[in-house]
Fold:
Amino acid sequence: MQLADLFTPQARELAAPIWAAPPQAGAIPLISLAYGLADPVMLPQEELVEAAAQITANDVNEVLNYAPDARRLKTLIAERLCQEGVAANERQILVAYGSSQILGLLPHVLINPGDTVLVEAPTFMGAVRMFGRAGARLVGVPVDAEGLDVAALDAILHDLRAAGVRPRFLYSIPTFQNPSGATLSLARRQRVVALAAAYGVLVVEDDAYVDLRFRGEPLPPMAAMDTDGWVLRVGTFSKILAPGLRVGWAHGPKALIDRLFMFKPEGTSGPFVTHLVAQYCADGRLEAHIAALRFHYAAKCALMANALRRELPEATFVMPDGGFFIWLRLPEGVKSSALYPVAIEHGIEFLPGNRCFSDGRGDEHIRLAFSETPAAQIEEAVRRLGQAVAASR
Ligand SMILES: Cc1ncc(COP(=O)(O)O)c(C=O)c1O
Structure:
């Protein structure tokens, strides 16, 4: 009798998470461009300590006992949504431990084994994996420089309908997409919303990076264009404040928000963390911090892009207008899976492109995060990458 006999079939098949298996580094200390971590120098350490002291001094029972999550935070989220043109209502907001928790709750409410879920190709597999584990059949919709290919989406929806299949939802990252960096154009946003209404398909609009815009004007979210209740907008404080706080949220149709909440095991999120975020954000401090982040990450993105043009002139990429990543197409004939171990030997790590597709495609791409690595190391990292590419050929 083995403990593993008790595991469900889904649990038995699971591989260890990427985080649990740090690669065997070569002779030189590894520089990792693999993950979308915040730059530690931009974490507002002192202000958060100050905010923590203030909230506990104000009302220790409200903050450190079991209690509803902070109303102030929902008000703040609703205000930010209104600024984006979304007709926000605090009763239609769910606050959770990171947007990941919300994405992880979706299958409980929406997915039966065998159901179809549409995802971008490439996409953020961290989220999509949870849909797959719930038994969803994942159908990839291609992404190009303008984001999700709406003609392909239309054709897929049409074919699925002809086959009697109604997808449960479309998972989309419209702005500075993870991993491609692409931003869905205004016309395409309108088309996605129209298609969602026509086919009765929910759009899960995960806009984790929307505030980190380096250039150009903000685009309205799909949630602002939706008049019929087909969009669930998902956001996070991870990219604009601190990932370690694990505070994310969703806004959408009340029936869906209520059901997601019912599957959230701990009920409301811890009042300490929700009060802390609300306190930090007061008096325009969050918006000032976001302005600093945009400036900071734009400079690091430009630094990486210039280094790539110099060290890897045969590789190509679309310069992102914001976010954390450059999605690099490797020179002809170089495959990310074969390059990966060589890169580790050269002291550099990236996310292989096939980790960003639900069907294992993407071997000609790699995702490079410029967010965490100190600016002083980015050029060195790209130089090592250039050497690894040369060595792997
Ligand atoms: C597109 C996207 N959505 C969601 C998340 C998860 O964010 P959170 O920290 O809020 O769980 C990430 C983090 O990498 C992301 O890239």
